[in-house]
Amino acid sequence: MKNNLRVVSLVMLISLIFSGSLLYYMIADIIVPSWTQEGVDLYVYVIVCVILISIVIKFITGMFGLTAFTKSTTEEEKQKKMKIGGKLSVPIAACGLLCLFIKLFYSDTFLVADVFDIGLDILLGFMFIICSMFVRAGRE
Question: Fewest beta carbons within 10 Å, which of 81, 82, 102, 121?
């Protein structure tokens, strides 16, 4: 389970590429051009905020997951990092579900980056929770 958690943490850090590219698209192609034309709907700003929050939390959680199993980490530090990482992965899954809800009900476009970002947020959030529970329980 320890190796699974390392892989989930690494994929979580790699998924920052999808989130970052989606955030760049939302800001550069939708929000900035709307300053000179008509305004943008409120859901676009909400999605940008949710993606930004998701990026920060994914980075922190991924780093906790990768640094928890270094040789210099004691058992107490590992348990603490797994506990904090498990708690932080709940908002990651919630951000993915919130983006999915907003995109399904308010948006008329659904990009490939949206699918990857939302899917990875939900999947990685739940996988990190499950893996950290097993590691904290001593089933490595």
Answer: 102
**Residue 50: CB partners within 8 Å, gap ≥ 6?**
95, 98, 99, 102
Spatial separation of the C-alpha atoms in residues 113 and 106, rounded to whole Å: 17
Please answer whether residues 111 and 25 qualify as being in contact, where contact means their C-beta atoms are separated by less than 8 angstroms: yes
Helix (H) or strand (E) holding 122: helix 112-136
Question: Taking residues 39-68, what's their average pLDDT?
Answer: 89
Q: State the pTM of this model.
A: 0.85
* Upper half-sphere CA count for residue 4 (Cβ side, 13 Å): 14
Q: In whole angstroms, give the CA distance from residue 95 to residue 89.
A: 10
